Amino acid sequence: MKPNNYISRTPRLLKNFNKSVTRIRPILISRYGEVSAKNIVSDSREIYKSLIPQIPFIGERDPFLIFMLPTIRALAIYRALQKYGYTVEAAGQLINELSEAEVKSYPKFLRRLIGYLWFSPLFLMRLKKRAKKSQQRKYPENFVMEFVEGNGKTYNYGINYIECANCKFLNAQNALELAPYICATDKIISELLGWGLTRTMTLAEGNPMCDFRFTKGGETKIENLPVSINENK
Q1: Which pTM value belongs to this model?
Q2: What gap in Å lies between CA 154 and CA 148, rounded to an integer?
């Protein structure tokens, strides 16, 4: 019988969580002090562990997990910061810095390779199939998206997310206020991986979709970032 959760992956997920938090430990110490930083790390790990059984099952090897799991980690950090009286803005800034540290930890050649593959014919073919498959809604808590052909002028291709697994999960956890900060990390990722992402709206802001448009070698242009993120750029 196939599993319908990710509990069996707990050791690996915790190991990856520890690696992620280690990358921002110096930031935590400088911002909150060594004792508080230690407590935040310890508490966020325990919260993350408690969230693992609650991760919506979207398939054993669904590629969308690479977008969902960082949101689970972010929520754990947010809950830990809340415990010590910190705001969603403080958590959002920290999550942004965590995303930047994680992508920068990739070797430069790997970042270039990911940027190249993002526009490769094979990747686009698989992306089209994945979009159609998502519309079957086999797993209700998953992402649902539409593939958008490039217009030959301003972008190579696009993706319209019409349902967001991250928003669904955060809403179920009564933490939907964190969603815009999760969306904001796309700016950093696009800039570091060369995706040339343009986005004018998101589901997290209450819009009907997230309109991702990718331009090879293009400038990243994302509107409506949270104020606290803009202030720190």
Answers
A1: 0.92
A2: 13
